[in-house]
Design goal:
With 396 residues, this protein is mainly β. It is built from one helix and 31 strands. The structure holds calcium ion (4 copies).
Length: 396
């Protein structure tokens, strides 16, 4: 079904020295609902009597403003909802904000068969929302930022997981080979047709892994699940490398790395249509993998804050048309090393611009699958423009 929609939106202008004083960081944690995990009840610390409200306040105290504590989202699906104290403007053709995490590159990566960077990359999927009804609350529509794995066949959409509250006093099931695994049947989880298992308990973290302030006996989380990103490079469980995805995720690349920057232009609606948002006020992050890395335990996204990359940008009101294009163009690979692979619904001409707006290429695409040779392009962010819309890609 062809869907055309107009968004009364705005175009951003960058103005320095704006009279609007404001922080570049988040000021509010609206909700903190981690999945079970080895850092839950520790980051932040739970105390008897805590409630969802007081735990959100503790998370806020950890990461709001310039505070750089650590909040763990636990295993797959656990999430946090944060707010900026002023809108993050979607400045055209550039990234707009980043989630601060604790990802790092490993100094010694023995895998020479790949150019991918890795270390501790625990990708979280990022959603954004604008305070359309102006009530200061994140009760408006959410849009996922379509990161590099959004179109991957390995990504499971509509993934749903249920965790079941454990009996903390049950007889544990230790692992005979791996002494650090003190209970391999600790927190049971099931999914909607994608397997089941347990969150293991380990000897390094002895507190309950179940969020103690939640009254539920079953915690359900849903979203997209990214493919496992770890490799046991040692082959014997002693050295795991989690390889970073190319762009669009939290806690996936070090905070100072450009790979951690996020562009509001990557937003898509629930059907996968690109959506133009002039600015956003709220961000939601959830752990996007469901994997276990031996003594490292389950992979969990952490966040330390979030940063508006251009806090002095201001909005001006100009309407802009956004919609589904007549010509469907599908990126077959999110990762562009040499060749951009595309599928087009019709013959069409496209142009590729670099970040400065300079046209670097003009290509006639035939209907069907075809490729564009990008070997001559220097590494960077590019914009591929069709007659009606544009797509961003990163040349590595
Ligand atoms: Ca932008
Ligand atoms: Ca609202
Ligand atoms: Ca983690
Ligand atoms: Ca992490």
């Amino acid at each position: 079904m062809r869907k055309q929609f107009f968004l009364s939106a705005c175009v951003a202008l960058c103005l320095q020295g704006s009279a609007m004083a404001g922080s570049r960081y988040i000021s509010k944690v609206f909700e903190y609902r981690p999945a079970p995990g080895q850092f839950v009840n520790k980051l932040p610390a739970y105390a008897d009597g805590d409630t969802p409200e007081t735990m959100a306040a503790k998370a806020e105290a950890s990461i709001a403003g310039t505070n750089r504590g650590l909040v763990s989202l636990g295993g797959y699906g656990g999430y946090i909802v944060v707010g900026f104290d002023r809108p993050v403007v979607n400045v055209p053709d550039t990234t707009d904000f980043r989630i601060l995490g604790n990802a790092f590159w490993s100094a010694a990566n023995p895998n020479t068969t790949t150019s991918r960077r890795g270390g501790s990359s625990e990708p979280g999927i990022v959603l954004v929302s604008a305070d359309v009804n102006k009530n200061g609350l994140p009760d408006d529509e959410w849009y996922e930022l379509a990161g590099s794995e959004y179109h991957s066949a390995a990504t499971i959409r509509d993934y749903r997981i249920s965790y079941f509250k454990p009996d903390e006093n049950k007889v544990p099931t230790p692992d005979a080979q791996r002494a650090y695994l003190t209970d391999t049947t600790y927190v049971r989880w099931t999914t909607n047709g994608h397997g089941s298992g347990y969150v293991y308990r380990n000897s390094f973290h002895k507190q309950s892994y179940w969020p103690q302030w939640l009254p539920d006996d079953e915690l359900v989380f849903a979203g997209s699940r990214l493919a496992d990103n770890y490799v046991d490079e040692s082959g014997n469980g002693s050295y795991f490398v989690q390889y970073a995805y190319d762009w669009g995720y939290a806690d996936n690349a070090p905070n100072a790395d450009r790979m951690s920057e996020l562009d509001i232009d990557w937003a898509v609606d629930a059907s996968g249509n690109r959506v133009y948002l002039a600015s956003i006020d709220f961000v939601k992050v959830y752990t996007a993998v469901n994997q276990y890395c031996g003594w490292l335990g389950e992979t969990s996204t952490e966040i330390m804050g979030a940063e508006n990359l251009h806090p002095d940008a201001v909005l001006t009101s100009v309407d802009r048309l956004v919609g589904e294009t007549a010509f469907q163009l599908k990126f077959m690979s999110g990762r562009v090393a040499d060749v951009l692979k595309l599928e087009s619904s019709a013959d069409q001409s496209v142009e590729i611009f670099d970040i400065t707006g300079r046209r670097t290429m003009s290509v006639d695409l035939p209907q069907g699958v075809s490729t564009i040779d990008c070997t001559m392009l220097p590494p960077g962010i590019y914009l591929l423009k069709t007659v009606q819309t544009s797509y961003k890609f990163i040349k590595l």
